[in-house]
Amino acid sequence: MGNTPLISIVDDDESVRTAMRDMVESFGYAVVVFASGPEFLGSDRLRDSACLIADVRMPGMNGLELQERVIASGDSIPTIFLTAFPDKKIRDRAMKAGAIAYLSKPCSRGDLLAHIHSALASGTTGGKRS
After folding, report:
1. Second CATH level (architecture) for the domain 6-121
2. Radius of gyration of the chain measured on its C-alpha atoms
3. Which pick of 2, 27, 44, 51 has the fewest CB atoms within 10 Å?
4. Along the chain (130 residues), what's the average pLDDT of each consecutive run of 10 residues?
């Protein structure tokens, strides 16, 4: 992997995970995918993640709860939310908590790439912050 930023994708829909992984890899990034928030939080890739792309609606732990858990743990990972069910109140909550973007599915390649660039330029590259 070297210096290639690692992008973590969390979505409960396998077809979305596969499509997103393929798209983000086509941008030249290293990608890991997870089927749930708990799977991501329990992985050894959390601290290596330079950007998190997460679905908002997932069973068990939703994307906003995942964002809260990441922040509460002291990890700081720029987060891009994707949703098939846009909601202004949820968007506002995500953005207030520090999300880089809140995008509707399906999102364009250009929009996603621009937001990944913003996330990586935010100065936060995953892992514990002092």
Report:
1. 3-Layer(aba) Sandwich (3.40)
2. 13
3. 2
4. 87 96 97 98 93 97 96 90 95 94 93 96 53
